[in-house]
Amino acid sequence: MDYAGGSILMRAETEIERRWRLQACRKEPWTATWLDMIGPDDLLFNVGACVGSYALIAAYRGARVVAVEASPINAGRLAENVSSNILAGPIVLVLGVCGPSEEPLRMLLGSQIPGAADIKVAGAAVGDLVLPGVTLDGLADTYGQPTHLLIDVDGGELNVLRGGSEALAYVREVMLECSTDPRIAEGCRAILTEAGLPVVETWDQRDGVKIEGVTYSLHRRAT
To answer: 183: buried, middle or exposed (CB in 10 Å: 19+, 13-18, 0-12)?
Structure first.
């Protein structure tokens, strides 16, 4: 992987993996820089971990990581990537849909390609698989209170935050990839601000080109 801080190995058999997952630091240099500031005393919840690029960086730096991923294809590849590295911190892999409740959800898996982010909530009568629901609060009860959150769930970010009313009260920093849909963006910002996590920096360009559909933001608790 293109991580300047050390050697991190990842399997890359698809174009998506080679272009975006191996090049994760070029894709989101702000996220890579942010991860470089966490360490052994931190617990990161990486919600929407995909094949594990950012979870691996955090664990390489010694942080404990809970990696939540809804796609079984990506979760399998994440597990392979973890096993290929000697990491200073542990990674716990949770297969499930992070949202406002722990009710199981019927999902449609749109792609069988590792590295693709293509899984959606299905209708009541259709779907490829049923996955457990998990919440930030439930994860905190099981694995401990996170110090940091990294959320990248392709439009589901508001639902993720709605399940974290207790956990968010103690989180120090949140890196959020958020849809530019006003309902989602305004809802996420309101929840985080109310939790004492106002936005301190945003990014909406990559290599000088506007990123379509999403904005990245860093939220930090005042000290």
So the answer is: exposed
